[in-house]
Fold Phytanoyl-CoA dioxygenase family protein.
Amino acid sequence: MATITESKTQIDRSSGSNLSHVTSDDPYQTALASLERDGFVVLPASLFPSFDLPTLREAASRSTKAARSGQWPYIRTLPKQFPPWPQDPSNGIWGVQHLLHPSNPDHLTFAKSYFDTELLKYVKTLIGCEEEDLVMELYNMLVRPDKKFELRWHRDDIPADATPEQEMERLQKPGYHAQWNLALFDDASLIVVPGSHKRARTEFERNADPYEQNMPEQLVVKLKAGEVAFYNNNILHRGAYDPEKERMTLHGSIGSSKAGGERARNVLQHGVGEWVGQYDFDDFDPDVAKRASSMREKLIEMGKRSGDVGYYSKDE
Ligand SMILES: O=C(O)CCC(=O)C(=O)O
């Protein structure tokens, strides 16, 4: 897949996984070129020396334990794919929501990685915006379900029944955000169709089984611990989870204040607006506190502007 390392840009499907190896003196622009071309890019852990994996894993384990035992109500529950999720973990969970919630005892640890200076340099380049445009959005965690579970093929913000014209209309608009997976353990759960973020679905894709195991050109995004995959959330993708394999992958997004109502729904349907006003930054480093509070204010403004946003696919 798109891995920023040595040699030149290419997609290598021979391994059945990570493809494009890109070089450039400017890793930010290189990442952007890969994201635009393939719809995703994988950045090596070495680009993010300030991510403290052991500390993040400890925090992630505590949060997951609380979520599985019913002590943390913000969860993604089986068998539901899209929000809203019930708060009852008895069918098992596949995600822990709202890592930055002020009542999470580990929210400062997660905030350090979410507001990380180096990460935000990539975010700004990938969105094409300045620091003052950044909007706080979501920070969740995707975890191993207790039984086999898969997500259907989807684009995050284009319904399956969209016509090719509707798909293209949406895909041609800027996304005004960046979305990423930061793997705390090796992770091969995300499957994408490279390049599908720029085109309507083919007849095959449109008529395929929602859980089609062999979509033409599909690629498993294989992440090693510490790697970060940025991806266009409207790339055709799905998740396929192995209950035997530990998964704790931080799943974040940050937006731009230029985004409109579609982005507001994608973010606010997760319920972040209900608590973000309580967020205080007293215990943050002063620089991070300044950045975080400005990003938070813009999320609150987005909530006020957009009102009741509804859900992408409430019953699925
Ligand atoms: O598990 C993953 O990495 C993919 C999750 C996903 O597709 C989603 O949340 O819409």
